[in-house]
Amino acid sequence: MGIWWWRLILVSLAGILFSPKHGASQRVTGMKYTFMKNASSAPSVSYYEYEYIVIGGGTAGCPLAATLSEKHKVLVLERGPSPYGNPNITNLDAFGAALSDTSPNSPSQRFISQDGVINSRARVLGGGSCLNAGFYTRASPYYVREAGWDGKLVKKSYEWVERVVAFEPIVRQWQSAVRGGLLEVGVLPYNGFTFDHIRGTKVGGTIFDQHGHRHTAADLLEYANPTQLTVLLQATVSKILFTNKGSRSRPVASGVIFMDALGREHRVYLKQGPKSEIIVSAGALGSPQLLMLSGIGAERELRKHNIDVVLNQPLVGQGMSDNPMNAIFVPSPVPVEVSLIEVVGITNVGSYIEAASGQMFTSRSPRDYGMFSPKIGQFSKLPPKQRSPEAVAKAIEKMGMLEPAAFRGGFILEKIMGPISTGELQLETSDPNDNPSVSFNYFKDPRDLKRCVQGIRTIEKVIESKAFSRFRYHNMSASVLLNMTANSPVNLLPKHSNTATSLEQFCRDTVMTIWHYHGGCQVGRVVDARYKVIGVDALRVIDGSTFNCSPGTNPQATVMMLGR
């Protein structure tokens, strides 16, 4: 019996032995909780019942609500549906299906940044943990210190999360070859399997179990006290309400307005008391957007949308960043397994090397590039004014005409740390269902571009390594693979004909998202060190919008930990 089996058994036992006392009693058929309800069943007005209202049942909101419910009455308002019973969320081999669904009821909502890169935001209980590639890894000790967090409490909170959602992956041939290549080219030392962020090469955790089933932040609601928690689904918050008590000049958050799926308006008012609060956990787009819709933002911009100004705070929506991802597609002469992110090389030059392989829709559509597919918005070749659903559909049609051998292989990618480059978010309309306008300014800072180039050079060396030789055609040089990747449908930016001559141009032309965008309500700018919104009372923001840079190689573990 391999060591991963023993670790899996220990994780399972830990989940049984240390599960919360309420865990077994609060589930009903299909892993739905008894405290989950459709928002349409809520009263039109609710007075003074809840001490905390959490806006957004996502990667941070679910662990946050579960924790608060241990001692307080909590309401969660989630704009999306339940993830349970949806195989496009649950199953590893269906990865990308939810991201490719652009219907109004999809668990993902597509948006296009002003940079021309197609992206997605979550619209489901569990948030981005229902849509992502599943990699689970902690932030570095340096990140924890810089954030001013209590290291011991951080460790306990990570462990609390990991008892429910984190597993050791089964590393097969492709991922093993990437691992061997990283070690061969000097991304050392080898740190084995670990959740910790350590320089060198490691196998990280995953939220997919040994059966290929996804476990999400929504599963952390197992810890909740069901008598103290209510979760309303398909509840879209349009506004936070404020009052001014007596002679106090500071506005106090007192309630919210939300709409149900039928378009009916509901109001909920906080229970009166010194500890009662509204906590916004709507994500890096949703949280700054909702603050603006509620009157907290740059006065000049709010006036454009006829929004009453509660607090003139021009830093809301500033500092938006998305870690740029660039990848090289490597066709394989031999079959490869379906794998998402499992191995990572944490380099000393500020870039992280990861890999994914196989055809992600093996049972339904054998012609697809998984997390690099135009079906999920990884699209290229057109300038911004020519972006259209028709163009994406044409790319998907063209992909479907390729020979099956064209899809045998995988991508080795690099993501830069940080990043240093930032953009901004602004309202497009006053409708909370509409996407705001956002720019990330990929590679605006030359240091980001330098890190990308160094990462691509590392990938080239891995591809040419002896450890990886089985999975590449030896008549395909690195420059051939670069140009082949650069001419695939990746983003909406205009392309250059010979990117192999300039890795800088390759980085600019083939930039994609890895869905790690953050900022807009940053600590020290919009919220204080305790995540309280500066300038108002009874209002906090707790999610990735508060980050100044992305934690570790992948942020979801830290977002869940932060909620706890």
UniProtKB/TrEMBL annotation:
Record Gene3D superfamilies: 3.30.410.40, FAD/NAD(P)-binding domain
InterPro entries: FAD/NAD-bd_sf, GMC_Oxidoreductase-Related, GMC_OxRdtase, GMC_OxRdtase_N, GMC_OxRtase_C
Keywords: Disulfide bond, FAD, Flavoprotein, Signal
Highest taxon above the source species: Eukaryota
Keyword Membrane: no
Any one GO molecular-function label of the UniProt entry: flavin adenine dinucleotide binding
Pfam families: GMC_oxred_C, GMC_oxred_N
Domain Glucose-methanol-choline oxidoreductase N-terminal: 283-297
Signal sequence range: 1-23
Keyword Lipoprotein among UniProt keywords: no
Cofactors: FAD
SS bonds (residue pairs): 452-507
Positions bound to FAD: 124, 237, 515-516, 544, 555-556
PANTHER family in alphabetical order: OS04G0573100 PROTEIN (PTHR45968:SF3), OSJNBA0019K04.7 PROTEIN (PTHR45968)
Family statement drawn from the similarity comment of this UniProt entry: Belongs to the GMC oxidoreductase family.
Protein name as catalogued: Protein HOTHEAD isoform B
Species of provenance: Glycine soja
